[in-house]
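Let's practice the habit of predicting before peeking. Look at the sequence and jot down your guess about where helices and strands might fall. Then scroll down.
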Amino acid sequence: MDNQRLLLFVALVVVVMMIWAAWQQDYGGRHPTPTTTSQPAPGTQAQGAAGSQPAGKAAPAGPGAPAAARDGAGVAHTDLPPSTGAAKPRQQPAQATPTRVLPTARRIHVDTDIMRATLDTTGGDLRRLVLPHYAVSAKKPDQPFVLMNDTLPKLFVLQSGLLTSDGPQPTHHVQYTADRTDYKLGAGQNSVKVALHWRSPEGVTVTKIYTFHRGSYVVNLEHKVHNGSSKPWTGRVYRQLQRTQVAEPGATAFIHTYMGGVIYSPEDKFQKIDFSQMVKQNLSRDIKGGWAAMTQHYFLGAVIPPAGLTDHYYTKVLSHSRYVIGMVAPAVTIAPGADHDYKSRLYLGPKLQNRLATVAPGLDLTVDYGKLTVLAQPIFWALSKLHGFLGNWGWAIIVLTILIKAAFYKLSETSYRSMAQMRKMAPRLKALRERYGDDKQRLNQAMMELYKTEKINPLGGCLPIVVQIPVFIALYWVLLESVELRQAPWVLWIHDLSTPDPYYVLPLIMGVTMLIQNRLNPAPMDPLQKKMMMVLPIAFTAFFAFFPSGLVLYWVVNNTLSIAQQWSITRRIERGAKA
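Done guessing? Here is the structure:
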């Protein structure tokens, strides 16, 4: 290879290719709208909606359909946990999409200092969750972000209940009663409890209790069972998250982040169960000490069972492109007159890394840094420390870029020194090319002799750049995935570092810095390579115009520092040559 500028070009292309490969591996083409869905739960579609079943009537089962779970009245509900192993969902004709597919009864509203929740007496579901400290966008600061909702197309709810083979089942299809409809965390209160009640004809009572805590996105969920009947009662508790696949507000086609199911187990750690996997095959696995979640770019909903129990984890695909991930606990037998408390925890909110790690093992891995987590986590730690000192994420990015550049100063110096030497040799290399013309073999031999005589390593500028690539990519994912930078302002027109520059100023500045770097690097002798080098800044400017401004800010600062370092080294070498 006859110049180091080509090597730099290759390194930059490798960066883009690695990022693109990561996108394709994790996200590309893996979120189809399912054409194979399970039969909708009877009576769950809105009345009057096209294709809906009358309330209380089970949808007809077709050939090959999996057996549906049934409540004590014998009504089939295919959105309940499976009673046997996983089964592939069968094909079904397209259905009209109603606004609501979940029945509603009486609404219970809960207000705390950091969330507003809505429960429904139908099943005691958690149907809606609003996060008032997080706006939909920087342009709509007064419109809070809605994480959970029970209407299509943006459906995301939490359901739970109990399964028993003897008598009525208090599933998420039964009707609960509530003491009142409004709860608020008052001044001086650390928590607020909401109790919902159900009673069977035989005297078995279930009290479903949600406990919301001040300043916490962790919600405790309990099912207190009192067996008031005259015989033993056996039941299993299940908890599941149901959602559709709808892009998070502010998402762009150029920035792909993971949305779908995840599970964690002590054996296999963090695993993604994306929507396409749910369509192909239902999950069926026993896990002790794990958790399950539905996650999206900056937020998640997670169910965390007691660590000492082995739960059966499952997934299902329902009508109207609804996906379910959940778990069912082992059966517990309660003697007549006795009580039992089934406990779980929920995490419903932003992916705040300093909180997630304390809630459950591995929950912080939902902040998806991919394969470079081992590098990305220390980078985020340093960035958050700088933010704590500076009070601004934009300035924290700038200082962190300077620190990273300083850490790689010697490596970069080696690269730029090699490029400067190649730049100095450019006239002699051009003369060799003119002398030997199209005789590639003699030209390459002469070039290698020249490199050897002048003690120049033609690959000297490549290795330092390659070494830095993993750090650059890790920083890329930190800036892309951290909710702490969501809607974080910097200065002047940059009001949200997680969205593109609205006036494209930073991408244009970055393009200019790349043009300056082109002038400092040895010019390619091949006319085609020279044209490619001229096009590269334009292509990157267009590419980065759609990137979050925090990422572009990093590249602008990094390029500016590189220009200063490279100019200084090149000037020293050229002065030495003249002397």
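How did you do? The first strand starts at residue 69 and ends at 70.
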